[in-house]
Amino acid sequence: MVGLEHYLILSAVLFSIGLYGALAKRNAIIILMSIELMLNAVNIAMVAFSRYIVPLMLTGQVFAIFVMVVAAAEVAVGLAIIIAIYRHHDTIDATKIDLLKW
Amino acid sequence: MGASVAFWVLASIAVLAALSVVLVRDVFRAALSLILCFLMVAGLYITLSADFLAAVQILIYVGAISVLIILAIMLTREVQQGSPSNRFRLPAFFVAVLFFAGIAFALLNTPWQISSTPPLEPTTPAIAGLLFGEGGFILPVEIAPVLLLAAIIGAIVLVREK
């Protein structure tokens, strides 16, 4: 029988994979994709809480909808920033984009 | 029985697809694995009887965000270089494993108060009532379009040719 813990463990696995990708990758687009993975993992956890703990209130699903809205806005602005950086520097290697570092 | 089989199949494919996002060398294949992972998450929403969210997941993530990501990959010609790791590869791995261990320890030792009530089905009218009804989430719903408008204008300004 699949229960709440299964979904939460799956969510933690996906979040950890996304965390590793966001920390260890050099390509900025891969970093953004890893952040999307982490947002999806959080959504799974919230929908699972909503299903198993308060099945009639659905607040977890409403929060997941707002997370999706913010994720859509974030990915649009993030990819625009990456493309603008690529135009200026001809690279999206996150270790080489160090203009603000001193 | 059928629900647990569906969960295990969807969950294993989702984890494998997520692993290939961070491990595959080809950026384009990583994006395709990410789309597969999004699809599996939509299936998981169906097993959680969140039908509206599954449809929204497919529309927004599989439909829109994946197209944006693939477009960005094609506009930045980094495909030849693959997706190399930086020098924090091992520390990042340990941080991720530690994070997972901490979360797993916390959630396996928490006495969750599982409700035995069967879930609502379909969920769309109930979510609409929550979002737009009295005492619901109408203020965040009003703020969300402002955020989306700001994001659209910001994206246009950022990528516009000077």
What does this 3D model show about the protein?
The complex is a heterodimer of chains A (102) and B (162). Chain A is mainly alpha-helical and 102 residues long. Chain A has one domain (4-89): Helix Hairpins (Orthogonal Bundle), CATH 1.10.287. Chain A is built from 3 helices and no strands. Chain A has helices spanning 4-24, 28-52, 59-89. In chain A, helix 1 (4-24) packs antiparallel against helix 2 (28-52) and helix 2 (28-52) packs antiparallel against helix 3 (59-89). Chain A is elongated, with a radius of gyration of 17 Å. Chain B has helices at residues 2-23, 27-47, 51-75, 89-108, 124-132, 138-159. Chain B has 2 domains: 1-82, Up-down Bundle (Four Helix Bundle (Hemerythrin (Met), subunit A)); 121-162. In chain B, helix 1 packs antiparallel against helix 2. With 162 residues, chain B is mainly alpha-helical. Chain B has 6 helices and no strands. Chain B starts with a helix and ends with a helix. The chains are: A mainly alpha (102), B mainly alpha (162).
Stretches of chain A where pLDDT falls below 50 for ≥5 residues?
A: none
- Which structural class is indicated by helix and strand composition of chain A? mainly alpha
Mind describing the biggest β-sheet of chain B?
A: none
Question: What is the gyration radius of chain A calculated from CA atoms?
Answer: 17 Å
Distance between the termini of chain B: 59 Å
Structural class of chain B: mainly alpha
